[in-house]
Amino acid sequence: MAKRKERVAPPPGSGGWDFRFATNDAVKGWDQVCAAASANARRAWDRITTDPRHRDDRQHPLKGSLGTRAVDGKDLEQWQFEVTSAGRIWYCIDDDRRIVWMTDCSIGHPKATE
User: Fold this and answer.
1) What's the chain look like in SS3?
2) What is the mean pLDDT of the chain?
3) Given this model, what pLDDT does residue 11 score?
4) pLDDT at 101 over 70
């Protein structure tokens, strides 16, 4: 099982962003999403590692107090990818290191946005 700060497999393609787990909860959530909706998980991984700031109805920045999050000692903007109708991937973008940090991942709708 992966651990916090490890890469969300597979490795990035040429010019792609490195995608890493920021929390142990994200590791567990990613495993659940992959088991429940593997094609959607792969599509999310492709989109996030290619263009983490792409905007559409499934991928957008979070608002208000959820819009930023401290990761590895830095305040970073936080985004959401709707991996299923209820499932979400939350991630933060570190431009300096070209890393996308998965902060949360769940197959259910996150309580923080209710």
Assistant:
1) CCCCCCECCCCCCCCCCEEEECCHHHHHHHHHHHHHCHHHHHHHHHHHHHCCCCCCCCEEECCHHHHEEEECCEEEEEEEEECCCCCEEEEEEECCCCEEEEEEEECCCCHHHC
2) 91
3) 64
4) yes
